Amino acid sequence: MVLQTISASKGEMGPMVASTLKLGIAVLNGGNSTVQQKMLDYLKDKKDVGFFQSLAGLMLSCSVLDLNAFERQNKAEGLGMVTEEGSVITHERGEKVMQDDEFTCDLFRFLQLLCEGHNSDFQNYLRTQTGNNTTVNIIISTVDYLLRVQESISDFYWYYSGKDVIDEQGQRNFSKAINVAKQVFNTLTEYIQGPCTGNQQSLAHSRLWDAVVGFLHVFAHMQMKLSQDSSQIDLLKELMDLQKDMVVMLLSMLEGNVVNGTIGKQMVDMLVESSNNVEMILKFFDMFLKLKDLTSSDAFKEYDPDGKGVISKRDFHKAMESHKHYTQSETEFLLSCAETDENELLDYEEFVERFHEPAKDIGFNVAVLLTNLSEHMPHDTRLQTFLELAESVLNYFQPYLGRIEIMGSAKRIERVYFEISESSRTQWEKPQVKESKRQFIFDVVNEGGEKEKMELFVNFCEDTIFEMQLAAQMSDIGERSASKEESEKEKPEEDNPEMGFFSVTTVRTALLALRYNVMMLMKVLSMKSLKKQMKKMKKMTVKDMVTTLVAFYWSLLMGLLHFAFSVSRGFFRIVYSTFLGGSLVEGAKTMKVADLLANMPDPTQDEVRGGEEAEKRHPDKSSAEEDLADLAVNIEDTDLLSDIFGLDLRREGGQYKLMPHNPNASLTDLLNSPVPPPPTPSPELRRRNQGKGSTDEDGEGKEESQSEPEKAEGENGEKDVKPKDDKPKQKVRQHHTSKSEEPELQESAFWKKIIAYQRKLLNYFARNFYNMRMLALFVAFAINFILLFYKVSTSSAVVEEKEVVYSGPSDTSVRWSPVEGVPHRTVTVHFVLEESSGYMEPTLRILAILHTVISFFCIIGYYCLKVPLVIFKREKEVARKLEFDGLYITEQPSEDDIKGQWDRLVINTQSFPNNYWDKFVKRKVMDKYGEFYGHDRISELLGMDKAALDFSDAHEKKKPKKDSSLVAVLNSVDVKYQIWKLGVVFTDNSFLYLAWYMTMSILGHYNNFFFAAHLLDIAMGFKTLRTILSSVTHNGKQLVLTVGLLAVVVYLYTVVAFNFFRKFYNKSEDGESPDMKCDDMLTCYMFHMYVGVRAGGGIGDQIEDPAGDEYEIYRIIFDITFFFFVIVILLAIIQGLIIDAFGELRDQQEQVKEDMETKCFICGIGNDYFDTVPHGFETHTLQEHNLANYLFFVMYLINKDETEHTGQESYVWKMYQERCWEFFPAGDCFRKQYEDQLN
User: Fold this and answer.
1) The whole model's pTM is what?
2) Where are the chain's structural domains?
3) Staple partner for 601: which of 412, 663, 791, 1195, CB 3.0–4.6 Å?
């Protein structure tokens, strides 16, 4: 319908065509490839030439800025030649120029969306309608309209060039034309991205270069003019956005560019033609890009030592001159752009922000354009002039300009340029990323072919990107939380509930609880209760008494713990509310002493002031309504003060004053008076309150001078209120319910701050994980240094068994029985710290505690820094196996695969994947395997349900309300996922090592010598020592099997010795009792393992000489074979395994180092080819095939919107999603491909 309507319009504008274009934009939005293909098929089947003719006609009908009509209208208005509607015309005269700008933008937006997503078929069909009798080149028609727009903008620029400032009407006209031109440039960009070489050549041979030259002239002069007045800043930003879109279009023209190509030559010709304008643009960017360096320099800070962001214009002038990076003309221009306030002060921070960021955005694209041209047109001397002019700009963007080489869709090496953020550069140098990079290079460089190597490299890139993003998030959380705190401080006071903790509900609850507890304690300790308990105790059995005693101690312990917790919590909340909440401080700041004392009753004039107060109790109706309205606005503060202090808030003379409920009441009455209900707007309630006050005074006999009419009025007031007493009670209940929510609000805000501080603290531990590891090692060294001063001290004591014997009833002396008491001496060994200063022992204790605390912080830091990466890797591995290998669907993991069996637990949880960024992996698996294996089976396997995939409005309506109860929170926890996560964490070797590290630190408090084990951490902190440890574990399986074989061989020799040679195993000296080492098998085996294996000559060196014995010949065979098989062969094999592993690891490291220095990791070409020019290989690996740049490019693609990808980026992204690595230039490079042209 859209195509038919446009075709039927015959190139004439109308409301129907405008609505049709909007419909077409809506259905094509986001690059809907299905709709694009159906439209293309329709146009090809129907051979509808009218559609393209109508598009070309509509472009011709689109208006541009008409300077002649604009001048005629201005002259007519100036001469007063207007009709009665002249006021309306004057108001809308800006709208008379280019009225169809919205229609024009919709037209070109529709054409852009036809080619969105680099639809090459539609791109070519817009240029040439193959098969049609008549062909309309929409590409050329678009350029023709662009040229008309450029000429009209240039005309308007010349009109305003003689004026100091562009008026509001002119700014509106310029804004319209600029918005239309931006849309046209975006459409042209979409025509050629991909790249579509046919459209590129069509544009290259059109009048596009004339339009670009004209725009460069407008940019160069208008940006100088607009930057000198703050009222034109918005128009300047729009102009710079247009300039950015034009540069992007020029970069798209160079997509797929070859060395010394025709498009590159034409672009250089265009730049040479407008060299003066290009020089002005580069100079403009250079001036504002250097502003950031100027204001951040130490010399500039001398003019603003307090960092207020404001200095005088004269100081700013001096700072630019002392910076010596600006010429005199540039300094004068910048001063003309700077505006001061009424105090002649310049806000330089706002000035830099106004110009630096736009200049940075566009300057980067200009730098990419010039770099691209310089590398593809190496021998064009004309280009060197622009490179010299742009040297400062190119140097500024050099750290942020990334470049890589890919194998393009045309199977030709292409260079890709992209932006690298400053944070990415910073995170790349973090220690955890360096460690991951070193480990990757060591593991991958010499393993597998090119395809496997690239697969591992991309996995490393993904893991490192996640790690860098996590580290960046941790680095920024402090700034975000600080800014959040500042924003909260800037909130108005009424947004925050004040004194919520000290509300009357909280105080009343605490007093009631205290009263209840005191009453219960007095009841329990009363004589009646004690007698009753004594009777019960007499009837108890031993079992009951033991049970009761245990229950008593348990209750006492729980009570003490609860008491301590309550006191600590209450004290902490009081301190928080007082010192952190700020409510009391702010209340004290705003309250004056006069306000408190103004209406305090004078004790000497009680009777006199009674009448005055009575009069105040009967204000007129209007004043009562005003008071009630004011009180309704401040109901929370009024109730709060009224409940706490027994005061009323009244308005007198435009001011609020605090007054007692009863001015004549004493202090005792005020303290003992019940809490009054909140004020309500009903007059009955006011009379009730007045009557209540008079009744209370009458009942106590303290107001004898009160008049009878007042008493009667009070009684009548009570009678009037009684029938309607239910509503006020209900309101009172509602009031107390709302007041009880105040502590909850305060507590929720309190816990939010606690959580924020907790997050900041955890991030601090994560950022300083490696520093804490090093600190823990230093503390361990200090502890072990103190342990060197320990010595052994022995002490003995005589212990006797003694019995008390009495000689008679009158003898009270005690004597010991010599028969029963047998004395014996015990020796106790003590470790004593031998030092004279007395500081070592407390220092040792402090260091031990410090080491344990640091060890605990290291575990926390590792959990925050590395555990998310561990979970990410595991989730990515499971997701990739699900999607590409069909694991758990087409095949099942083996029973021996414990890891695969454990991962089965997580695939059907709702939280999976949590850390892995592809959240739609389950849907992809469903789309890939659902039709063949059944959607129900896949849904059950993956834990998917239809409600989870239903995003309709009906489902949203059925969505239950969020429940914030504790049960709902517990139910919301994905238990299976958390169990799986714990399993992954507790099988991570690094986490287990840190857990062992902390365990040994805790045991060190029991015995300080456990801290000696922490010295082994030095082997984990240095690469060379890690290699030594790896040499033991490198051939671990072979080593364990060899040791097992050694144990078996020694056991066989033990059996022989036990049966035949026992008599030779006597280790006693002459004259001593025999010490036989082989009278039982276990002792004999332990003797062979401990003594025989360690002996240099074998077991024969440790037992008796067989000379002259009948078994001499057999002993000789036994000893020699033991020496040969155990000492010579098996021990040598064990030593050889360790030594060979160490040598192998060292050779592997040397080989990796040599390969990285002599061969490119990406393309595999050796340094012999590149070193034909000085520093050729170094330039190639640092600029052309830099590993870091490929990683940054993957990160750039992941973070960028797919609809914003260029043609090269879309190609790489598609290959990446298909896990195809053919875009890596294996065995080739740009320099080798264009060797002849470059040389």
Assistant:
1) 0.69
2) 390-473+1161-1238, 1036-1154
3) 663
